[in-house]
UniProtKB/TrEMBL annotation:
<comment type="pathway">
    <text>Amino-acid biosynthesis; L-methionine biosynthesis via de novo pathway.</text>
</comment>
<keyword id="KW-0274">FAD</keyword>
<dbReference type="InterPro" id="IPR003171">
    <property type="entry name" value="Mehydrof_redctse-like"/>
</dbReference>
<keyword id="KW-0285">Flavoprotein</keyword>
<protein>
    <recommendedName>
        <fullName>Methylenetetrahydrofolate reductase</fullName>
    </recommendedName>
</protein>
<dbReference type="Pfam" id="PF02219">
    <property type="entry name" value="MTHFR"/>
</dbReference>
<comment type="similarity">
    <text>Belongs to the methylenetetrahydrofolate reductase family.</text>
</comment>
<keyword id="KW-0560">Oxidoreductase</keyword>
<dbReference type="InterPro" id="IPR029041">
    <property type="entry name" value="FAD-linked_oxidoreductase-like"/>
</dbReference>
<comment type="pathway">
    <text>One-carbon metabolism; tetrahydrofolate interconversion.</text>
</comment>
Length: 262
């Protein structure tokens, strides 16, 4: 509810890697959608699941009032190589197509300012983004980055290729450097040397870390705004305060929010 006061276009909810976690995520997303007017975008992945299982989750989300999906291939839980399920969607592009056949979902997908760890480079990433757009995705949320140039280069490549998807930069306020290093290693994001230097000596000082992190994330947003970027996707990591602070710094004014009624 605290984030809903800033009237975002949607609030996304991540998806468990398998089994009961997927069902809990659906239940929580549906319960939240019943409480707030802000659209809830539920993450949906195809890793480790048969097509009928993924379709069943999508159908349940639609019946519960969820109209927005973040469609992702998903990461392998044990960190191994991705192998499509024998009876499942091969990748996010196929998942997008399947969702579009089922219902009129608004579908967001992932995009990568720096090459995805499993790709052979920027050309392959761009071709894959095109497939997702042509399958019916309307918005691409990027992986996080810490300097504007990777995003701006991606925006130029997408425009030059004639891919008409809305490209929204992913902004990650640093929680801890240890956590951020782990995330960056997993997704192939470059950590500029200057970033780590800003947090030296702050390992046991979460308050100051939060202040520095918010200032750096806001500075990145300001640089992107100067380049014509209007929308941002904040990675909250279950912490409302950094996103609220960024909204305030960016001039987003909170409003009174009434709970929705199912």
């Amino acid at each position: 509810m605290r984030l809903a006061r800033y009237t975002p276009e949607f609030m996304s909810m991540t998806y468990g890697a398998g089994g009961a976690a997927q069902e809990r995520t659906r239940v929580v997303a549906s319960a939240l959608q019943a409480r707030v007017a802000t659209p809830i975008a539920a993450h949906l992945t195809c890793v480790g699941a048969a097509r009928r299982e993924v379709d069943a989750v999508a159908e349940a989300l639609w019946q519960d009032g969820i109209r927005s999906i973040v469609a992702l291939r998903g990461d392998v839980p044990d960190g191994g190589a991705y192998i499509p399920h024998d009876e499942g969607y091969r990748d996010a592009a196929e998942l997008v197509a399947g969702l579009q056949q089922a219902h009129d979902f608004e579908i967001s997908v992932a995009a990568y300012p720096e090459p995805h760890p499993d790709s052979r480079g920027e050309k392959e990433d761009l071709a894959y983004l095109r497939r997702k757009w042509e399958a019916g995705a309307t918005r691409a949320l990027t992986q996080f980055f810490f300097e504007p140039e990777p995003f701006l280069r991606l925006r130029d490549r997408v425009a030059a290729a004639g891919i008409g998807i809305d490209l929204v930069p992913g902004i990650l306020p640093v929680g801890t450097m240890a956590q951020t290093r782990k995330f960056a290693t997993q997704c192939g994001t470059t950590l500029p040397p200057w970033l780590e230097s800003r947090f030296v000596g702050l390992d046991k000082d979460p308050v100051t870390t939060g202040m520095v992190s918010t200032a750096l994330a806001a500075s990145l947003c300001f640089e992107l705004q100067r380049e014509g970027v209007a929308d941002f996707h904040f990675y909250t990591l279950n912490r409302a305060e950094p996103s609220i602070a960024l909204c305030a710094l960016l001039g987003r004014v909170p409003v009174a929010v009434e709970e929705a009624h199912a």
